[in-house]
């Protein structure tokens, strides 16, 4: 199967990164999981940023980007591949998940199998994102990565931020790659549109390819996390009746926020 999709760069120095929207498991890796098919499907939907590829489709079409076509339960391209660098590996949810959100083992995987997953899925995804970023720099001498996600309205058991007062929008930033100006523009524009918003709460940081991380100031990045209660029914995993309206409104706010970039 196709592990990711590239949407070609347009006439703007902006890339959308959508790593967690898929619910697909490549057939060759299904046998690794010890869960029943029903349990596996449910776990995939719980963990996925469901519909976020559709939610941000206007931005993708206007700017370009990359979308994972593999469930994060197989390989999480947003995590560090080195477990020593990845905090979530401590709960069995590093780049290669071995536990579910309840802390139960979902697959036994040896080092050879892990390396195959990283070589086959993780590394090509990062190589493609790096190339997109590099192409953007060559064309515009700057690049802004919009790291696009959603989050549940209630904290998961393994999350470090246990505050139940979750905002509509969370902006994740990096001290090196997210300028105060960029952060403030996004914050104020969402606030003006009557969305509740927090910085780095409940989630922190934002995606930057390793080649440029903490090295190239011309690569900017900001993570945009949407509270799922705004666009879907979290109990049935279905879009709500204001999905298109909310999507259009938020995409417009983001477009306005990046106009000066």
Question: Which helices and strands appear, and what pairs or packs with what?
Answer:
Blueprint: E1 4-7, E2 14-18, H1 27-30, H2 37-47, H3 52-55, H4 57-63, E3 65-68, H5 111-140, E4 143-151, E5 169-172, H6 180-192, E6 197-199, E7 219-227, E8 232-233, E9 238-239, H7 243-258
Parallel strand pairs: 2-3, 2-4, 4-7, 5-6
Antiparallel strand pairs: 1-3, 5-7, 8-9
Helix pairs in contact: 6-7
InterPro entries: N-FG_amidohydro
Pfam families: FGase
Protein name: N-formylglutamate amidohydrolase
Could you list some keywords that capture this structure?
261 residues, alpha/beta, Aminopeptidase, seven-stranded mixed beta sheet, two-stranded antiparallel ribbon, 33% helix, 16% strand, N-FG_amidohydro, N-formylglutamate amidohydrolase
Mean pLDDT: 95
Computed structural class? alpha/beta
Quaternary class:
single chain
Q: Can you write the helix and strand succession as a string?
A: EEHHHHEHEEHEEEEH
Helix percent reads: 25-40%
Tell me how many strands there are: 9
Distance between the termini: 36 Å
């Amino acid at each position: 199967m196709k592990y990711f999709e590239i949407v070609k760069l347009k006439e703007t120095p902006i890339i959308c990164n959508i790593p967690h929207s898929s619910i697909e498991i490549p057939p060759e890796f299904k046998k690794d999981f010890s869960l029943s098919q029903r349990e596996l499907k449910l776990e995939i939907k719980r963990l996925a940023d469901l519909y976020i590829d559709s939610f941000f489709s206007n931005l993708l079409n206007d700017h370009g980007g990359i979308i994972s076509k593999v469930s994060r339960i197989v390989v999480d391209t947003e995590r560090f591949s080195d477990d020593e660098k990845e905090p979530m590996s401590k709960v069995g949810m590093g780049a290669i998940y071995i536990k579910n959100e309840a802390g139960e083992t979902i697959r036994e995987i040896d080092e050879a199998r892990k390396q195959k997953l990283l070589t086959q899925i993780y590394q090509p995804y990062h190589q493609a994102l790096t190339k997109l970023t590099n192409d953007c720099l060559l064309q515009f001498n700057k690049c802004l990565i919009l790291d696009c996600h959603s989050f549940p309205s209630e904290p998961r058991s393994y999350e470090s931020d246990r505050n139940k007062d979750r905002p509509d929008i969370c902006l994740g930033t990096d001290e090196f790659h997210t300028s105060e100006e960029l952060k403030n523009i996004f914050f104020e524009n969402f606030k003006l549109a009557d969305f509740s918003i927090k910085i780095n709460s409940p989630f922190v940081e934002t995606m930057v390819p390793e080649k440029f991380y903490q090295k190239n100031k011309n690569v900017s990045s900001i993570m945009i996390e949407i509270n799922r209660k705004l666009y879907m029914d979290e109990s049935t995993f279905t879009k709500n009746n204001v999905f298109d309206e909310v999507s259009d409104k938020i995409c417009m706010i983001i477009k306005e926020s990046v106009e000066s970039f």
